[in-house]
Amino acid sequence: MLRRPPTSYLLAAALLLGLLLWLAFGDLQRFRSEAPPAAQGERSAPMRVEYRLSEAEAYRPQLVVQGQLEPVHELELRTRRAGRVAELPVALGARVSEGERLLRLAPDALEAQLARAEAQLEQARAALAGAEELRRRELMSRPDLLRRRADVSAAAAEVAELRESLDQTRLTAPFAGVLDRLDVEPGEVLQAGDTFGRLVDDRRLTASAWVAQREVLGLEPGQGVEATLLDGSRLEGTLTHVARRADPATRTFYLEATLDNPERRRLAGASATLSITRDTRRVHRLSPALLVLDDAGELAVKHLDGDDRVVVSRVTLVDANAEAARVAGLPERVRLITLGGGFVTAGERVTAVTDTAVAADGGTGGAN
User: Fold this and answer.
1) What is the CA radius of gyration of the chain?
2) Which of 32, 39, 63, 250 is the most buried (most CB within 10 A)?
3) What is the signed CA dihedral for 95, 99, 101, 107, rounded to 10 degrees?
């Protein structure tokens, strides 16, 4: 059997001992618990962010709600006295002018009664004239003269009453419009208060809607309204009424607008989308991605001051869609942080460079 020389064992032991000493005491610098002191003048560089200069612009925001269209004037036509329908001079669906006759009831004996009352009034007036002459000559007492005057007043009242009764047999249109419904036939007997038709004025329309309490602020009569119909066509109008008190059940406010209907289209009773133009505001247009929440959980925007320090300003969202948001509450000119805003905090000094993507995204800026 071949034996190893003793020197080989000694060499192996020496190598093992050297390895243990290196593991135990080698490169103590690497295992220090504290970092070595920084070299003199060596500091961390400020965070780099990109910005774009934004200037406030005039903007008229719009409130969009669903509304209902009704004619500006609509009236259920009723009789004021009983009678038999003698004439229907206007056909169903015809347009009529104000004061045009819609229905005539048979006058029966009213005309003869009126003629008799007018004759009696004339006789009473003649008797009064004679009595006044006698009184002037002191040939009639004052009580007799007063009785003659009372006779004249009674005859005049009877004439006025009969004339009004006769006028009530001739029913006329209180305003210009369309005879939208006619419920009677000639010869039919009506009682006082019976409905015989409906008159609609559709030259203008009333649009009504309900808006949430957070949206009613800033709405005032006189603001412009545009109604979009189901077929895509539009009508122009004006806001005419905004309720002062919310509905207690829904906490919404009622409003009305008057719309022009020059073509007199059949739109009464239809629905429409109303766009109400609010008063002009100064806003900044930016990407929705630039909106953040401040420490209080309110909507805010990060921008830079004159010393390149980060400022977090609370804003009011005026309008927004998938492409852009318009906010109020910022200075007229402001440097909006468009890139890197998510890595900096209020008051931090940064290295600010111009946003190179402004032209590419239409001036709204990029994401944080």
Assistant:
1) 46
2) 63
3) 170
Q: pLDDT: is 359 or 138 the higher one? A: 138
Q: Give domain 48-56+282-354's CATH architecture.
A: Beta Barrel (2.40)
In the CATH scheme, what architecture does the domain 107-168 have?
Orthogonal Bundle (1.10)
* 63 touches 358 (CB < 8 A): no
Q: How confident is the model at residue 274 (pLDDT cuts 50, 70, 90)?
A: very high
Kindly report, residue by residue over 91-132, the tens digit of the pLDDT.
999 999 999 999 999 998 888 999 999 999 999 999 889 888
Give the separation between CA 80 and CA 196, rounded to whole angstroms. Answer: 11
CATH architecture of 64-71+203-277: Beta Barrel (2.40)
Tens digits of per-residue pLDDT, 130-187? 888 888 888 888 888 899 999 999 999 999 998 998 998 999 999 999 999 999 999 9
Quote the CA–CA distance of 327 and 329 in Å, as a whole number: 7
Amino acid at 152: V
Least confident among 38-47, 190-199, 309-318, 349-358: 38-47
Structure tokens at 208: 């009504």
86 Cβ neighbours under 8 A, 6+ residues apart: 104, 105, 106, 107, 169, 186
**Contact in structure between 338 and 365 (CB atoms under 8 Å):** yes
Domain boundaries, the chain: 48-56+282-354, 64-71+203-277, 107-168
Residue of 267, 274, 272 whose CA lies nearest to 71 = 267
Place of tokens 């610098």: 29
